[in-house]
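Fig. S4 source data, part A: sequence.
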Amino acid sequence: MAHIDDQLPPQDGPDSAEQRTAPRFTLLIRAAKLIVDDEREFLCVIRDASISGLKIRLFNPLPDHKSLRIEMSNGDRYAVEQVWADGEYAGLQFLDEVGIERLLDESHGPFPKRQVRLRIRLDAVLHSGGEAVRVAFQDISQQGAGIECDKWLLMNELVRVETGVLPPIYAKVRWRSHPRYGLLFEQTFKLDELARIAAPLQTGDAQASGRAANSRTA
């Protein structure tokens, strides 16, 4: 679908006309994540795209950085740089040539049709069979999480997880490869909710994350 709005601010020079006439494709609520300096990960929403770049919605300000990559839900990654920001929106320019058809089609790639997952390191307490054991989050999405747990958990077992920065989570064990387990949440997170809770975990601001988590249960 063509999009007539300019994604990038007009610039002088021979390339400006080409940028302004690059075809746009509207992508309503296409979730992705920004990888900052190959270390920290932040959820975002792609609003439109072209062969030159993307317009995204952010849920938190981006920290100072040296490199940016955007990862689609299927695992495809693209090197980008931020060229403008306006409130919660930002414009990203691709650093390499991108096939727009492949970018729009998420039915391929390493993880086709999978929800966006954020890598996080978060200690928690898991309650299972009358026991409370220490676990560590490895990643999280709107629907579930990957954890490491020394205790052997049963398939489809209902557990409760407490982190101190997230509200109590009830989940079922969906896969296991001890000591790694996959949990499916009983109550899913909204995209913006997860983004605002997870962002402070990437910057080390656990207190702010706690405030975000408490607002979910208020």
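Fig. S4 source data, part B ends here. Confidence is low (pLDDT under 50) at residues 1-20, 206-218.
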